[in-house]
Amino acid sequence: MPKLKGFKNPFRVEYVVVNLDALATFEGDEVSPETLRAAGLVHKHGLVKVLGRGQLERALRVSAHAFSKTASQAISAAGGTVNVLPKPFGVRPPARGNALTNR
């Protein structure tokens, strides 16, 4: 029987990331996961996280599932607002497998 290498965490939460430099070129004042998907900046599926690379010069109302600390500070410093959306699964995604998985 071959040995399995590593460990795959079933509770891992993966985000689609967007940086502030992409938001600086975004047209409009309201930024949400739906508008980002319509503009082609993020994939169709997944949670959206805003990271702090780049500069933001104008005020935006940004809604996403997660923000880095530097991104939320930069958005607030530019006069915008940050809205954290709830995750669709609550605390963490459900475990796959039987009741004895990951005890």
Can you tell me about this structure?
The chain has 3 helices and 6 strands; from the N terminus they run βαβαβββαβ. The radius of gyration is 17 Å and the shape is elongated. The strands form 2 sheets. It has a 3-stranded parallel β-sheet. It is an alpha/beta fold. It has helices spanning 20-24, 33-39, 69-77, and strands at 15-19, 30-31, 47-51, 61-64, 66-67, 81-84.
The largest sheet is: 3 strands, parallel
Structural category is alpha/beta
What is the helix fraction of residues, given as a range?
10-25%
Distance, first to last CA: 23 Å
Please give the order of strands in the largest beta sheet. 1-3-5
**pLDDT < 50 runs, ≥5 residues:** none
**Rg from alpha-carbon coordinates:** 17 Å
Question: How much of the polypeptide forms β-strand, as a percent range?
Answer: 15-25%
Number of strands: 6
**Helical region count?**
3
Shape: elongated
Instruction: Please provide the ordered H/E string of secondary-structure elements.
Output: EHEHEEEHE
What's the mean pLDDT score?
84
Q: What key attributes describe this structure?
A:
103 residues, 6 strands, three-stranded parallel beta sheet, alpha/beta, elongated
